[in-house]
Design goal:
The protein has a single domain, classed as Immunoglobulin-like (Sandwich), CATH 2.60.40. It contains one helix and eight strands, in the order αββββββββ. It has about 150 residues and is α+β, with helices and mostly antiparallel strands. It is elongated.
Length: about 150
C-alpha cells in the first residue's frame, strides 16, 4: 500500500512539476517576425535619364561600345551576377559579337561577375562583322543573380 502511495505521489509530483514548467514556458509568449526583401541590384545607364535602352551608330567592321552601365549594389554584401548580352533582332552572331567588358574597356568579363557594395561599371562591346547585314539591330542586356 505504501508503494502505491509513493508511486501515485511520484506521478502527481512529476505531472505537477511538468505542468508548472510548461506554464512557465508558455507564460513568456511568442514573437513573430516579418521581413520585406527588396531587390539588391539595378542597372543604370550613365548620362541618361532613361535606363532601359541606349542607341549606338556603327558601320560594318567597326567595334562600338554601349554607354557606361553602372551596376548599383544596394546590399551591404557582394552580389554575384550573370550578365548576358543577346541579339533580339536585326542580325545574327555572324553579324555582331557582343561581350561584357570592364570599365577600362580592356578586359572581357566572364560570369559570374562579383559586384561589391561599392558598385561596378561595365560596357557592352559590339563588334560588327565587315559583312554585317545592313539595318537596325536590337540587343538585350540582362543581369540575373548567380547561385554559386
Amino acid at each position: 500500500m505504501k508503494n502505491k502511495i509513493f508511486i501515485v505521489a511520484g506521478v502527481l509530483v512529476t505531472l505537477f512539476g511538468t505542468g508548472i514548467g510548461l506554464a512557465v514556458l508558455n507564460s513568456y509568449g511568442t514573437v513573430t517576425g516579418y521581413a520585406t526583401v527588396d531587390q539588391a541590384m539595378k542597372m543604370d545607364i550613365m548620362g541618361s535619364s532613361i535606363d532601359i535602352n541606349y542607341t549606338i551608330s556603327a558601320k560594318q567592321g567597326e567595334s562600338k561600345y554601349s554607354p557606361e552601365i553602372k551596376l548599383v549594389n544596394s546590399a551591404n554584401v557582394p552580389v554575384n551576377l550573370n550578365i548576358t548580352a543577346t541579339i533580339i533582332s536585326g542580325g545574327t552572331s555572324e553579324d555582331v559579337v557582343l561581350s561584357v567588358v570592364n570599365d577600362g574597356k580592356n578586359t572581357t568579363l566572364t560570369n559570374p561577375i562579383v559586384v561589391q557594395p561599392s558598385d561596378a561599371y561595365i560596357y557592352i562591346k559590339h563588334e560588327f562583322s565587315p559583312a554585317a547585314n545592313l539595318g537596325e539591330y536590337s540587343f538585350k542586356v540582362e543581369a540575373v543573380p548567380s547561385y554559386l
